[in-house]
Amino acid sequence: MDANTTTLSELFRAGAALLGGRPQALLEAKVLLLRAARLTEERYLAAPDKPCPPQAEAFFRRLVERRLAGAPLAHLTGTREFWSLPFEVGPAVLVPRPETEGLVEKVLELSSREDEDIVDVGTGSGCIAVALAQELPRARIRAVDVSERALRVARRNAARHKARRIEFLRSDLLSAFRATGLKFDFIVSNPPYIARAEWDGLPEDVRRYEPRRALLAGESGLELIERLVRRSAAFLKPGGYLILEIGEGQRDRVLALFGRRWTEIETAWDLAGKPRVITARRA
Ligand SMILES: C[S@@+](CC[C@H](N)C(=O)[O-])C[C@H]1O[C@@H](n2cnc3c(N)ncnc32)[C@H](O)[C@@H]1O
Question: What CATH number matches the domain at 79-282, 3.30.870.10, 3.40.50.80, 3.40.50.150, 3.50.30.10?
């Protein structure tokens, strides 16, 4: 990048040129510049020829370099939108994916909007629990994860969105509730579901920057889903729902896990036409 670059729009063009090989080069350059200069898009558009402060310029150059080296955009900005809300993200949590909003939609479709008990298993950034807390003000929401580092991020995201009613707990799946006798109306989860053999085929930025424990689920990719299906019935009220995100090619094998204790087993497809959300009701 030219060392004399000074105005915001010149910096934007220089960054976009450097990122030029990427499909979203213009968008990425804009997002990184706004982050480095701490500007909203409106303020940038109102004065694109304003000089960029040297510190912000240096920060922008570093961000572009890290992006070129493969760092995910969300890690560079420290945030990703989910359910139209900004969530802090970082190396401890999976960056929320748009298709996961299908889990929130399904709970809202089935919810009575009364004081239901909901648990988000493998909460990561807390995106599902926080979105549900915003939409269902009467619900009692718990969110669990095995990772204490992920829970710290999730708690900050809940505080940021004033979702004070969510109780966060460290737990291996639902084990923290074994002694409590608590039963849920909804168990919702986007669990790890990548098979070991699929790991090498994942995009490099995913393998290098996202937590393995958030993605990998044994040889089959179904290790966590199998355990969750097996154990969930005991933690659901009669008529309660288990709502799960699944990976590509897993639908038939996941449907086969549900036995006589389950009814109303349904699949929802994502916008790319892939089976993505499995819902099952405790008989
Ligand atoms: C695919 S990520 C989902 C994160 C977030 N819910 C989302 O949708 O973006 C899976 C999460 O499950 C957590 N996890 C992995 N194994 C677990 C287990 N045995 N019990 C509870 N959480 C687990 C990981 O730490 C990770 O945060």
Answer: 3.40.50.150
